[in-house]
Amino acid sequence: MDVFNSFVLTAHMLQHMMLMMVVPPLLLLGAPLVPMVRGLPIFAAREFAGPFLNWSVAKRVGTAITNPVFALLLMGVTMFAWHTPVLYELALRSSAWHQTEHACFLFASLIFWWPVVQPWPSRAQWPRWAMVPYLLIADLQNTALCAILAFSDHALYPSYSAVPRLFGFSALEDQVAAGATMWVVGSLAFVVPAIVIAVKCLSRNASQDAIASTRRRETSFFGLAFSRSAEIPLLPRLVKIRWSSKRMEACSFVVLFAAASLCFAGLLAAGANDDDNQTLKFKEISGPFAVAVFSAPGDLDAGPSEFSVLVQDRNTHEVLLGAAVDLAAYPAVDAPGNRVTARASTADSQNKLLQTAEPNLPNEGEWTLNITVSNNSDSGHFSMPLHIVKPEAGVEKPWPYVLISVFSVILAGIYLGRRRFPHGERAVQA
Questions:
Q1: Alpha carbon distance 274, 277 (integer Å)
Q2: Contacts of 383 (CB under 8 A, 6+ apart)
Q3: The model's pTM
Q4: Which superfamily does 278-389 belong to?
Q5: What's the Cα-to-Cα distance from 405 to each of 302, 402, 411, rounded to whole Å?
Q6: CATH 2.60.40.10 spans which residues of the chain?
Q7: What is the average per-residue pLDDT within 411-427?
Q8: Alpha-carbon gap, residue 405 to 415, rounded angstroms
Q9: Distance CA 150, CA 284 (A)
């Protein structure tokens, strides 16, 4: 669905529903708490996870954010805030903000569904029957948002009015369909669990199930997570003995942490070139084709510049993925050797609806980009002006690596502090 996000609001809303109504309850139904802690390296569990999870402040914060009142308010605020035109448009224009939006949806929804699923071995703060009005109130919040989208007399998000339409219906019709889809999917996600919980609470075995559940939850989460029975030997005894010392545990943790951090930071840094960061620069019809060109916002810097081209049939709006797209760029004052050509392809594009090429425009000034589209015996020719500027001096800030470095310093400070003040060991043993 991510492929259609920038073009079809209904697909984007379905993706939001998946992130908020499907993924979180399935994750929590897997009871991931104990397996996640057991899956940590022994050094990380002993030095960081154990003390943090036993920290009284962390326990109070965890209890507060999983309180049903807070969870319900957080879910409503997150849904309404990110669907306001200002923030929604911001997410459409920026890959970083788009990822932030989706992270907020997932985080808020995990907290919202926590009291409903109550993953083992956590304890419920409210009686089970209270989850019925809890879910029905959430359904009312979702209904209000969907009604705004479905009954609005104008398109709330200008980006969807500007981009090419893929299926022939207007941006307003797309918005109505998005609101109706959210209404149906959201209501099912809230009402069906409410009915299931109500039936269970009214059944004869409800009290017996509650007693059995309470007995299971009396076992300490931290005892389960850090008990010796949780240590499943996956390597031969000889290897286990060789790696059992605290020094070897620390060294292996540092190596794993560095490798994982570099991979994660690299993925975040690569997101700077995401197709979500491109804007519509050109849209025209020629022959049997309708073409839209996307590139970085504002004036383009001299050097390699990425262009993404959407080719559609002008009558049916069908995306022509098999069409050949050739780019030819030349400066306004043509000079020998300054003409640049490139063939666009879907292989170089993150969004497979688009064909991408990266011609190298070496000099600043006024340029013209000619686009030739051919499909079978049909062809079309397009021309768009470009203003190329001199790249600004400065070094791009590798913020993901900076964040990882700061986090590393924090972990090192915690470790050294615990070595200097070893009273924290008692908290882990507790």
A1: 6
A2: 368, 369, 370, 371
A3: 0.77
A4: Immunoglobulins (2.60.40.10)
A5: 32, 5, 10
A6: 278-389
A7: 68
A8: 15
A9: 30
